[in-house]
Amino acid sequence: MRRGGLALLVIVTLAAASPAAEPREGVHQDAPRLTWLTPGFLPPDGLVTAGMALSRYSPEYDPTGSPAEYSVVQARLYGHWTPWPGVALSVGQNLRAWSNYLPNPAWPSADAGASGLGLADGDWRLAVAVPGLPDWLGLVGYAGSNLAVGGEDLGEGATSPEAGATLSLRVWRDHALPEMRLHVSYGRRWNRNEETGFGANLGPGPQPWYPQYPDAASSGGEANNDVRVRGAGLEFRGGTTALWLEY
Fold this sequence. Notes:
Blueprint: E1 2-17, E2 47-61, E3 68-69, E4 71-84, E5 87-99, E6 116-129, E7 137-147, E8 161-171, E9 179-189, H1 216-219, E10 227-238, E11 241-246
Antiparallel strand pairs: 1-2, 2-3, 2-4, 4-5, 5-6, 6-7, 7-8, 8-9, 9-10, 10-11
């Protein structure tokens, strides 16, 4: 299955900083997570953030020999907490709905409804920053996993850990233009649904969401369906606004 289409993301955030926090005046507060990436710069300790993100996208797949698309809407509730300097915890929970789904009659998902709604897996991630670096350079290591609470097809059905690191650079921080940041990330995810995999249309409904991996048997062993995660991001920050692009 190949995912295509344009995702529209709307984010509503509430933040409260304790007296111990030291926010940078005139610059939108740092966050311990963008959409997928964990950036190399963490917020000051004492910052608590809660919010909701809404996204819509159209997975493209091949049900009967011809390309087809259906619509997915996802709501994500999330929270961030920085209990100590250089340490941040992120937690999120997803709810998904889909419509116009057309399965292949030969798939196990052939009896699935054209639309549906359900609770998906959540996730958590703990990030720790390397101290003593210059203010234009950030390096963070992170670890976490999914929270296997999702329903059939909406959830992975197993808890899969992950770990990685992100290197970030600040560019023209004191320039008249908005501050620009560059992020490069590398990690590994140990997929744990070895029996059936996930995201390969092996269940009664569509699975157009991350992660997508085959079962261990067809991969040649349990280690062969694990994935390496590479990411890059371009971020602009200024005033009360942050804009970023991730790949």
